[in-house]
UniProtKB/TrEMBL annotation, chain B:
SMART domains: AHS2. It holds the Pfam family CT_A_B. This is Antagonist of KipI. Keywords: ATP-binding, Hydrolase, Nucleotide-binding. Coiled coil: none annotated. The keyword ATP-binding applies. Residues 24-317 form the Carboxyltransferase domain. The keyword ATP-binding applies.
């Protein structure tokens, strides 16, 4: 860990073509904010050879092309060879010095309609029973929360959301389903999320949204981005069908 | 201008160098498993090195050629033939329409690449023609090729009348030179794969560090474009602390709770939560792509600086190949020159028979 005047961070290689910059060990908003800010800096003013950034809970990984980084360095400083990892680390450390952690940044809030229970949420009753609640109480608690998108991963457009009330937390299913329909809303431990594409999975399913979270032909292809705030609101089966019809949803 | 799929083979997909820049949206990179073979296949027919080609796995397809074209076949040897006559690999080959290109049993490696001059006429999804099978997008309709598919390609640069007069009698014409791929991609059977330490290397026991680099691992049947599951000595974490999900990449070697390693490959997810003992160096990823299930591999540790040097050396080597191929194109980037050359060579060869 390098300690700078402002905060601690660690820059370490993920192989020969990427570096991970870690800001802490625990999931919290302060760490998330630093990740977002470094990404913003890199996307606004990147370096030759930069490919992309992938944010996660406590770190962000920066992918680069070592050949371009090497050539760029050679162009500027003719003789001394520097490892591309070192060159990229230096650039990142310079960027980190510019980070203004006291700055606040704009957050988008995205409301996602969910048709809870029934065939769409076969595990809603289990989640209610597990927590000694009625299914209506589970729906109420789930749709009252505000959830922060820490990262997108696991599948295209899949959000890792923080902020689930422990009152409705529930363990994963003991045997995962082989196929979960796209749009399914689930709970696993202290996490909640939406399956953007049909995949196998072990989450407890409590409902389904007609909204598409992954749109391969649009830019960006993911409805949600790290840093967004998500809210859920309940809709009836009729409204669900209407939205599917109108928006060409799932 | 197209190939008609008579038999699809075991797993034939359209792949380029991958879908970069969308990983923060959870979008998998995909792309050719053996990027060196793909790049060379493209250079041999005058394409840009990131153009899409067909990636064929173990049992290749049978394709009806519906238009005269210049192709190149690289990668593993899936015994290609045209109308029964064996086709040389690693060189430009000119085929007239109506012929049938057939791949037979796998003689070496695991994956072969078929490029066509002008490239395949496939719409890009997120800037790439690569197929992502699990996501069902990209490539040809988001899936592997099936019988009856018609895969269109672009007209290569020279005009029809320019090459129509080139005549030869056999089923195809090939140039009299080929690329020496040995220094770039040695097909050794049970390769030694070089790795750097993974981000959670320190969490594994000393004996695991040792056995990882000493013993052989078998590539199991549960291996695909997403990753190779290995079996061998079990690897042990000393520190069983739960890891928060973070970015993983092509070549990351994760260890699952049962102690078995998985090498993540072209179609791997963007993030993962298992500890990473090691990371395959980028220069050796194509070697892994050519290992079949059932074969074994060994690992050897190198420093990050060595990994970077090897990367730069291989890139330099590819650059030299590119220059050599351009020279063969008569110093011009001309497909016509190449077709002319192939036809002349075929005539001489037949004359000598």
């Amino acid at each position: 860990m390098s300690i700078m005047s402002k905060f601690a961070f660690d820059v370490s290689p993920l192989g020969d073509s990427a570096v991970s910059v870690t800001f802490g060990e625990e999931i919290n908003y302060e760490t998330h904010k630093k990740i977002k800010m470094l990404m913003d800096l890199l996307e606004r003013d990147s370096f030759a050879g930069f490919i992309e950034c992938v944010p996660a809970f406590v770190n962000v990984t920066i992918y680069y092309d070592p050949l371009i980084v090497h050539q760029e360095h050679k162009k500027r400083k003719k003789d001394d060879f520097i490892s591309p990892f070192k060159a990229v680390s230096n650039i990142i450390e310079q960027k980190l010095e510019q980070l203004e952690t006291d700055k606040t940044f704009q957050q988008r809030t995205i409301s996602i309609p969910v048709c809870y229970g029934g065939a769409f949420g076969p595990d809603l009753e289990y989640v209610a029973r597990f927590n000694d609640l009625t299914t209506d109480e589970v729906i109420h608690i789930h749709s009252a929360g505000e959830y922060l998108v820490y990262m997108i991963g696991f599948a295209p457009g899949f959000p890792f959301l923080g902020g689930l009330s422990e009152k409705i937390a529930a363990p994963r299913r003991s045997s995962p389903r082989t196929s979960i329909p796209a749009g399914s809303v689930g709970i696993a431990g202290m996490q909640t999320g939406v399956y953007p594409i049909s995949t196998p999975g072990g989450w407890q399913l409590i409902g389904k949204t007609p909204m598409k979270l992954f749109l391969p032909n649009e830019n960006p292809p993911s409805l949600l981005q790290a840093g967004d705030v998500v809210k859920f609101y309940p809709i009836s089966r009729d409204v669900y069908e209407e939205m599917v019809y109108k928006e060409g949803g799932q | 201008m197209s190939f008609r799929v008579v038999k699809p083979g075991l797993l034939t997909t359209v792949q380029d160098l991958g879908r970069k820049g969308f990983q923060q949206h959870g979008v998998v990179v995909s792309g050719a498993m053996d990027s060196y073979s793909l790049r060379i296949a493209n250079l041999l027919v005058g394409n840009k090195d990131n153009e899409a080609a067909l990636e064929m796995t173990l049992t290749g397809p049978t394709l009806k050629i519906e238009k005269d074209c210049l192709i190149a076949i690289t990668g593993g040897d899936l015994t290609p033939s045209i109308d029964g006559q064996s086709v040389p690999m690693w060189k430009p080959v000119y085929i007239k329409k109506g012929r049938t290109l057939k791949f037979g049993p796998c003689r070496s490696g695991c994956r072969a690449y078929l490029s066509v001059s002008g490239g395949f006429l496939i719409p890009k999804v997120m800037n790439s023609k690569s197929t992502y099978l699990r996501g069902q997008f990209g490539g040809f309709k988001g899936r592997a090729l099936q019988e009856g598919d018609v895969i269109p390609f672009n007209q290569h640069e020279c005009r029809r009348n320019e090459y129509k007069k080139e005549r030869f009698t056999g089923p195809f014409a090939a140039c009299n030179w080929s690329v020496n791929v040995e220094p770039l991609l040695p097909f050794t059977g049970s390769p030694v794969i070089r790795v750097t330490k993974g981000r959670q290397f320190g969490g594994f026991s000393g004996s695991s560090h040792e056995s990882f680099a000493k013993e052989a691992f078998v590539v199991t049947n549960q291996s695909d474009r997403m990753g190779y599951r290995l079996s061998g000595p079990l690897l042990e974490l000393e520190n069983k602390r739960e890891l928060l999900s973070e970015a993983v990449t092509n070549g990351s070697i994760q260890v699952t709770p049962d102690g078995n390693p998985i090498i993540l490959l072209a179609d791997c997810q963007t993030t993962g939560g298992y500890p990473k003992i090691a990371q395959v160096i980028t220069a050796d990823l194509p070697l892994i792509a050519q290992v079949k299930p059932g074969e074994s591999i060994r690992f050897s540790y190198v420093s990050l600086e060595e990994a970077e040097q090897l990367y730069l050396e291989k890139e330099q080597h590819l650059q030299q190949l590119k220059t050599g191929i351009l020279l063969a194109f008569n110093r011009k980037h001309s497909t016509k020159a190449l077709i002319k050359q192939a036809c002349a060579n075929e005539k001489t060869r037949r004359g000598n028979e």
